[in-house]
Amino acid sequence: MNSIEIPFSKWKLLLAVVASALFVVLGVFLMFVWSEEAGSSSPLAKKITGGILILFFGAVSAFGFVKMLSKKCALLINDEGICDNTTASSFGLIKWDNVTGFKIEEMMSRKYLVIQVNNGEEMLEKSKGMLRKTMKMNFSMYLTPYAIPSTVINYKLEELVDLLEKQLAERQKVN
């Protein structure tokens, strides 16, 4: 089988970068301008909030910018499995041997591609750091550690699920 590449949605990434940059600007104003005004209420709280905004949204903006310039695809589907490169805490390769199905879930008006696997708890145990936290959160909501946001990919989610189900069926016939 040839590899199938699912690209990033450059437009949605651009919107995320611009929105994040605006929050960084807001953080700068909170930290350096509004907290220094005469008679300002709780300047320390404004500085802390501004610092948090700068750090968090600066990281989101940088990540989005890097993904926009990257030549890598968001998802790569091949004979080994599905290689996820969608987020900062991407899952990497999800092997076909472990995939049992796919579904679409919606949370707070955002759709997610949920990849059901037969070794979810095992994968949780192997993961570390931010990836582990993301996988635990996904597991608690979807009973699988793998949930990929549709907002970062440039592909209709329903069509992607159909494509993945066909690929999975082909693998199950061979095995």
Key descriptive features of the protein:
20% strand, 5 helices, 2 domains, four-stranded antiparallel beta sheet, 7 strands, alpha+beta, 175 residues
Task: Explain how this protein is built.
- The protein is α+β, with helices and mostly antiparallel strands.
- The chain has 2 domains: 8-69; 75-174, no CATH class.
- It is built from 5 helices and 7 strands.
- The strands form 2 sheets. Strands 1-2-3-4 form a 4-stranded antiparallel β-sheet, with no helix packed on it. A 3-stranded antiparallel β-sheet has the order 5-6-7, with helices on both faces.
- A hairpin with a 7-residue loop joins strand 3 and strand 4 (92-95).
- Helix 1 runs antiparallel to helix 2 (43-69) and helix 3 packs antiparallel against helix 4.
- The longest helix has 27 residues, at 43-69.
- The radius of gyration is 20 Å and the shape is elongated.
- The protein starts with a strand and ends with a helix.
- The mean pLDDT is 88.
Topology:
Blueprint: E1 4-6, H1 10-33, H2 43-69, E2 75-77, E3 81-84, E4 92-95, E5 99-107, E6 110-117, H3 120-126, H4 129-142, E7 146-149, H5 157-174
Helix pairs in contact: 1-2, 3-4
